Amino acid sequence: MVRTPLTPEEHERGERLGRLLREARGDRSMTRVAADAGISAETLRKIETGRAPTPAFFTVAALAGALGLSLDELAARCAQAGVDLAAA
After folding, report:
1. Pairing with 78, which of 3, 55, 70, 71 sits 20 to 30 Å away (CA)?
2. What is the pLDDT along the chain (88 residues), one digit of tens a residue?
3. Are 10 and 37 in contact (CB under 8 A)?
4. What distances in angstroms separate CA 70 from CA 1, 44, 51, 85, one per listed residue?
């Protein structure tokens, strides 16, 4: 099965998600947050840097839980960030 290339908008959305997760992580170590979410630190690094712009739903849900964010809050913040970027 061949995966279709991501659009620029999908890449941008992944970068926004990464920034939001990195900001929510604050001064907590990447290793600690990744362990709390049950993922590898390398996976978290890829998500935070936008190199994994389409992480699995359950990965995002686990990260949101580890960071104390609700999925609704995370989705709203991603959407708001997109609106802010479009207005700039």
Report:
1. 3
2. 787 888 888 888 889 999 999 999 999 999 999 999 999 999 999 999 989 988 999 999 999 999 999 999 888 888 776 655 444 4
3. no
4. 33, 18, 23, 22
Structure-token pair, residue 24: 């929510």
Q: What is the CA radius of gyration of the chain?
A: 13
Q: Where are the alpha helices (DSSP H) in the chain?
A: 8-25, 30-37, 41-49, 57-67, 71-87
Phi, psi of 82 (to 5 degrees): -65, -40
The reported pTM is: 0.83
